[in-house]
Structure formats: structure tokens, C-alpha cells
Amino acid sequence: MECKKGLFISFEGIDGCGKTTQIELLNNYLKEKNYETIVTLEPGGCEIGKNLRQILLFHKGFVSDVAEMFLYLADRAQHIEEIVLKNVNEGKIVLCDRCIDSTVAYQGYGRKGNIEQIDLLNNIATKGRKPDLTIVFDVDIETAQKRVGSTKDRMEKESLEFHKRVRQGYLELSEKYPERIKVIDATQTIDKVFSDLKEIIEKIL
Ligand code: TMP
């Protein structure tokens, strides 16, 4: 089934919040209901993005904060045009693992970057198209760290303080944009998190 105008839903949270599991569950659920969906991610949802993801998560050695921000934004600019907008315009439900709010939370709150500038650059990268709905899976740092485990990428290796600021960023974003951003308590069981997620999604289908 196609949606009337297509839908763009993004999923956010600190590393280890469990969003990837929930996206998979939701995708299966929507497909069973005969919706046309695609699952994609940032960084890395398009060919150019796959290369950028490799640099962003696995480059050994110094990466400047500004370079990091522009690499995430470059991935977004390509991905939004090539994958997200194309599929939304075809009437599909696009389930996107991370988007604009990740840059505000990680490069803004985490790296203490200028949030007004990030908003402006996000706006350029997305041509002003915000997600119709954003779900933040909120979890405490200790639980998240356990879920991440010991094999960590460049971002996951950041300090506890960094990840605390990122979490705080998401919570503040959800207060700033209560219509678009909904928070789910992701310390609950997988089933309970999913049932909260379905309740929110049903309202916009
Ligand atoms: P993930 O795909 O496993 O969630 O990993 C992506 C990592 O990149 C995660 O640590 C969050 C980080 N990230 C940013 O710092 N800024 C961004 O704009 C995006 C999209 C991701």
C-alpha cells in the first residue's frame, strides 16, 4: 500500500539505544500491513555515503570537528536527494536510522559546536525537508554502554561525558520540537519499546 504522500520517519538516540532492532521490527510490521517501506541510514545509506561512513567511523588518526561535521552533512545532502526524497515522492515510508538531529546532538551538544550554524547547514543539506516524525530511543549511558560492548567505532570510543551531552541534546531537542520528536523509554523490554513505537506510528499512518 502506498501512503498518500509518502512518509519520512527518522530514528535517533545515543549509541546502544537499540534503535536498529526497533527499525527492523517496525519495517516487518509495516510490510505485513502492505505498506511500501524502505530502511536506510545516515551515514552510509547511499554509495558515496558508504565511503564517508568508513572515514567517519573507522579513520585512524586526527579528524577535526569541523571536517567531521561537514562529512556527516555531505553524506546527508547526497542521501536525502538520492534515497529519501526520491522514495518519499514515490509514496513510500522511508525509515531512516539517524538524520538531522544526530548532527545537532553529536556535533552540537557532544562536540560543543554552534547549534545555530548546524541548523542552518542541516537545512541546506536537506533542502529544508525535515522528517515527518522522529523517534528518540532514550536510554541511560550505563545501559547503552553495555549494549555497545567492547568493539567500538571512532564515535563509540568517545568519553562517557560526551555521550551524556549527546543524550541531553536529544532530550532538549524533543522539548524544542514536541510535535515532531517523540521520546520512548528504551530501557524497557524490546516488546514494550515496540508496543510504544507502534502506538506512535499508528497515529500518523
Ligand atoms: P550508527 O549508524 O551505528 O548509529 O553510527 C553512526 C555514528 O555516527 C553514531 O555514533 C552517531 C554518529 N553521527 C554523528 O555524530 N553525526 C551525525 O550527523 C550522524 C548521522 C551520526
- Beta-strand percent range: 5-15%
What's the helix-strand series?
EHEHHEHHEHHEH
CATH-scheme architecture: 3-Layer(aba) Sandwich
In spatial order, strands of the major sheet run 2-3-1-4-5
Low confidence ranges: none
Task: Give the overall pLDDT as a whole number.
Answer: 96
Write down the domain tally.
Answer: 1
Q: Based on the structure, what is the oligomeric state of the protein chains?
A: single chain
Radius of gyration from the CA trace? 16 Å
Instruction: Calculate the terminal CA-CA distance, rounded to whole Å.
Output: 11 Å
Report on the structure:
- The chain contains eight helices and five strands; from the N terminus they run E-H-E-H-H-E-H-H-E-H-H-E-H.
- It has 205 residues and is of the alpha/beta class.
- It has one domain: 3-Layer(aba) Sandwich (Rossmann fold), CATH 3.40.50.300.
- It has a five-stranded parallel β-sheet with strand order 2-3-1-4-5, sandwiched between helices.
- Helix 2 runs antiparallel to helix 3 and helix 4 packs antiparallel against helix 5 (115-125).
- The longest helix is centred in the middle third of the chain and has 25 residues, at 65-89.
- The relative contact order is 0.20.
- The model has no long low-confidence stretch (mean pLDDT 96).
- Thymidine-5'-phosphate is lined by residues 15, 41-43, 72, 97-98, 102-103, 106-107, 155-156.
